[in-house]
Amino acid sequence: MVISSLVVETTPDSLDAVADALSAIDGVEVHEKLPATPGQGDPERAVGKAVVTIERDTVELSQSTANLFVTIDGVIGIDLIYANFEDDPEIAALRARHRDREDPAGPREGDDA
Amino acid sequence: MDLTRRKFIKSTAVALASAAAAGTLASVAQRQGMVAGTARADEASSAASVAPDGSVTPADGTYQGVCRFCGCGCGILATVQDGTVTSVMGDPQNTSNRGNCCVKGYHLAKILYGSDRLTTPLIRDDSSTKGTGVGSGLREATWDEALDLVADKLKAAWKEGPNKIALWASGQQPILEGYVTSKFWKAGLLSNNVECNARLCMASAVVGFMNIYQTDEPNGCYEDIDDADVFVTWGANMAEAHPMLFSRLAARKLADDSVRFYDLTTMPTRTSKLADKVIVFRPGSDVAIANYIANYLVQNGGVDEQFVADHLQFKRGTEDLGDAFEDGYDATDKGKAASDVESIDFDAYKASLEPYTAEYVSGISGVSVEDLQEIASVYAEQGTNVLSLWTMGVNQHNRGTWMNHNLHNIHLLSGKFGRPGCGPFSLTGQPTACGTAREVGTFSHRLPADLLVANEQHRRYTEACWDLPEGYLEPLGENPGMHTVKMFRELSNGNIDFMWSMHNNWAVSMPNLTRFLGRDGQHDGVFSCFNVVSEVYPTLSTQYADVVFPVSMWMEREGQFGNGERHTAVFEQAVLPPGDARWDMWVMMEVARRVLDGEKIGDQDAFDLLFDAYYDKEKGAFKGTQREVSESMWDEYRIFSNPEMSERAQAICDDVDGTYGAKLKMHAKRLAPYDEILSQHGMIWPAQQVDGTWYSTKYRFCDGDQKEGYDQLNIAEYGDSGLAGNVSFYKSADHRPSVVFRPYEPPAEEPSDEYPFWFNTGRLLEHWHTGSMTRRVPELHAALPQALLYMNARDCRDLGVTDGDMVRVTSRYGSVDIQVSTDGRVDPPAGSVFAPFFAEETLVNLAVQDIYDPLSKEPDFKKSCVRIEKLDGVSYEAPTSGVANVDNDAALATTVTVPDGHEGLYDRSSTAACESCHTSAEGGDGTTAKLPGAPAMPSFHYVDADAASGEVEGTYSQCYTCHAG
Asked: Is pLDDT at B2 greater than 80 in this prediction?
């Protein structure tokens, strides 16, 4: 399972609607909603923010899921904060194949020395 | 995954995102133990385990990195467990992005582990097999065989003349790799034929900066976004191309009701949706609009007279330039005189602007008089911070340099310059276009640190920094070399014998590929030229390679990026490269030692003089770890911007014997020591020391406290205090930047009966990675398919096409077949169409013109003229072919295609026949196919991503749908 977290930024009046739409997507969970207080001079608080996790089997599916967010009305920005893919089966399999170079100092075909 | 572990990771993920939303990411990340510096690759290893290319087996821990997917250059932290990158997050200590990343961050690790990573050198024995498919005609080879062959070919071509060879690099090549590339090509081979893809992207901005200020790169920084009152975007789709910066812009706009945002564009985009006003202008007419604004400032008291008096000089240049349709354009009278300017006075400049009335410009641009007046009045407001942001619409323009001039002109005339939140800001397109292409100078006409091959003092200074005999670089001054389009035109003409490309994918990103790929029946140079490609994945460029070098990518080696706000940052070697892939730097050294074998510089061995400080040619190995080698190279590169490190360089810099009549101001680009850049998670140059501490300069040319990021020390050394705006243009001639009058001249080609549409190309957010990702998810495939031709509904009606229809787009250069969309993501006005440029299967550059700006030599990718015809009886099949969308050297291709000759071997509606060879169920790891050497079905194609089950997941049950050849 690949677990990632994002902050989805919304227009000030669409946070709830965006959060509902996000929650309806497979593997997406909304953990926190920070309502906007626009016009107060503080960029940190000017947009609505939804704290979101995505849990999907692979990085591919995770990003594809995050890409869906831009199609939701009211979404301004999608900030990826953290992505953990230690359990992505595809990466694990590919990585296993990449492990054929265990000792970087060991002799390799084509070395000059 | 173990449930406890999953809960722990999820709670970490939530805590970090929650902190990011609240603005406290840095402290929470620290509590979670996610700070770089918890690991250092080379400390974990004894010297005995250092590979020839300086790589080591990194310890588990967290490493600093820089995202490589757009021009923002965001800092990231990568956590490594058991030799694998297992998580990434935005780096809260990197001031460029302060912990934020866009969704492209997901792929930072995934790109390392694609199933078709290149891991062995490849050689093509029969050049007629070029372009016949992925891997077709290439065979595996040893490093020695591949290096010997490349060195032999390079040496033979070089002996025929310095213009018979070419090297094409990139705005994604790390700084020191660019530095060594330039040193090898310019000093080792005395050839100026080294260029990079930044010529396709930033050259017009560069020439603008150099002409105006005599120094390259923006004076401001990303933080300016937080202090602007008005944003004006010119030809920039930031929402797609600079997502992190656009989030910051949106936050600033919504924070304050008085903040305004104007989007000036030839077609509305996602960026436009946030704008208060979208001003759509006719392609190419931006030059006229900017002159109207300058005229408005003059006519309506918008000129800051004190700023003009204290700081500016006025010029006009060669006009009526024509366009570079012909190969010989540069040598024509107009071409030769394109860069010439002469001084005029302010009154003459004002008089030149007079024709640019609102009515006249409205007629050229199609923008209403009222809208023109409104945007002009913004620049005339006293005390308002206006931040102009621009990118490819301005740069990829047949008058791109002129348009850069005109934008700077507006800010200089109005004095809207220098203070935080106010100024002209040219956004860059790649993560280190600034750091490498521009600062190191991997251009034909450049030397490091803004120095020019054509300037005698600059050549002497470079000789001093590189410890070369005086006068050794003289041939560079006599033979200017070729800019990128000329290089490829000459290559296609059969006049270049050897080409080495790295960190790019020229066979997709160059314009006029119909000619450059030899598909026009007239130009076949690509087949006879010996092409070398250093790559991490198979791309269209490797299909035209005679030798492919498999190289380490991203955090498989140490490197450095310099982003669009002059911010230099390091990415550490965090993991090992796969198979026998090696660091580009090692490949360069191994080629160099072979080619320079027996060559002398003065009475010294050429290779030793240039590279012995860090490379042992007898052992074929670096003299230390990549960290140690990078520090050593950085110390050498730093001499350019810290001349006190070399007595000889200092003397030339200070012009002690009066030979040149001028001192160089090399501290204007002063770079910090390597360990400072590392410990501060990147620094903005010029870096300065106050009381033993190194500080960034965020607001260049603006006087104030150095510790607060103002340019105090350089102004004290080179400039003047107390001038208008607290600004001092110490780098400019006479300390006065040049306001040059640049008139409106029409695009190279305009719509006609034969080619009635403007054809614009560019970038969309997710197209930095392969579209094959989204194709695997059925519900997403419909929403976000591959490269589309975005069209206006009225044009569709007129042509009788609807969403999903296939059309043929034809210019006088070539044709491309593509699917129509009217979904409005890019929403062109009637008469214009848009397509993203890097889908290999649609290859829009087959139809894009290769005419270029006569000053910057940057091609105009935005204004080809085309006709559009419906392809009857052809319906869209998703996706039709290809190695998928491959962008530049990131090359995230993971989709393989059914090769020719497979007809009859498979069934289009099932997996059964394909599985008989390609199943990976027996090995169970998703990587080894039943047929040895064949592409294997990856784990995620199976139920529960378990290859061992042998049960193919429903989505993947029709191989041909995605893998059609």
From this structure: yes
